[in-house]
Design brief:
It contains four helices and seven strands.
Length: 116
């Protein structure tokens, strides 16, 4: 069964139309979808809707990759929202509060990858 993102009540009214016009369905069970992941997903949907297709979930982390270097505006947004550049994997990553030691293997081989 697919998991549909439920939007927090604190999202302002002007964002309501944008959010509800954006159909984002994530096939994860509720217990596999922690609040910290949902929080950053809401921000992505509301604030970075223009590059939604660049984000994906790997395990309990949110990753973001671009075919070319993103604009300074996008990079500044990523940094402001706790995304860190991973030079080895060439992706922006947000651990969503689930920190662990560097893995010698690619987490995409171990965890489910869910594209937004």
């Amino acid at each position: 069964m697919e998991k549909v993102i439920e939007y927090p009540a604190e999202i302002e009214a002007q964002d309501e139309e944008l959010i509800h016009s954006t159909e984002v369905k994530i096939p994860l069970k509720e217990e596999d979808f922690p609040e910290s992941v949902r929080e950053i997903l809401y921000k992505i949907i509301v604030e970075r809707n223009d590059c939604l297709d660049k984000f994906y979930i790997v395990g309990k982390w949110i990753w973001c990759s671009f075919p070319e270097k993103p604009s300074e505006e996008v990079i500044n947004w990523l940094k402001a929202n706790n995304f860190k550049w991973n030079q080895t994997r060439k992706v922006w990553q947000n651990a969503c509060g689930f920190y662990c030691r560097h893995s010698p293997t690619d987490p995409r081989e171990k965890y489910e990858v869910v594209k937004l």
